[in-house]
Write a structure and sequence with these properties.
By secondary structure, the chain is α+β, with helices and mostly antiparallel strands. It has five helices and six strands.
Length: about 140
């Protein structure tokens, strides 16, 4: 199971904690979050604690747009992709590795659950494209 670097239920991560844990990938986290808010100003950021630790959800009143789980020097971006979004993304120019991850994801009634580790700028760009599709569906 993927776990957050923040596992203390009694201590929600503050910005300083997140900055320290993510290191240089903190700017990529912010770039993704800023992109979602620029495209969808009614979105809200919500931190939650689960058995995997603290994670952040960017959501609107109907759905979660992206789940973010902080790691040590990186983060995971997770999406639930419906059939239409999956088709659009698989026909896009995102990386073949991410397409393979999406294709391999188990399909549930609500869609495919996809987790992507963001450890470099190229992966971030693909994740932003997925968020863009998710926002239009």
């Amino acid at each position: 199971m993927d776990t957050s670097i923040f596992t203390d239920k009694d201590h929600a991560p503050a910005r300083a904690d997140l900055t320290q844990a993510l290191g240089k990938s903190y700017t990529w986290w912010q770039e993704l979050v800023n992109y979602v808010f620029e495209q969808h100003p009614v979105a809200k950021e919500e931190w939650n604690f689960s058995k995997a630790g603290w994670n952040c959800r960017i959501k609107d009143s109907k759905r979660v747009i992206v789940y973010l789980m902080p790691g040590n020097g990186f983060f995971r971006a997770s999406f639930v992709l419906g059939a239409k979004a999956t088709t659009v993304i698989l026909e896009s120019d995102i990386s073949e590795d991410i397409k393979a991850t999406i294709t391999a994801a188990k399909v549930y009634a609500e869609g495919r659950g996809v987790r992507i580790e963001v450890k470099d700028k190229k992966t971030l760009q693909s994740v932003i494209k997925i968020a863009q599709v998710k926002l239009t569906m």
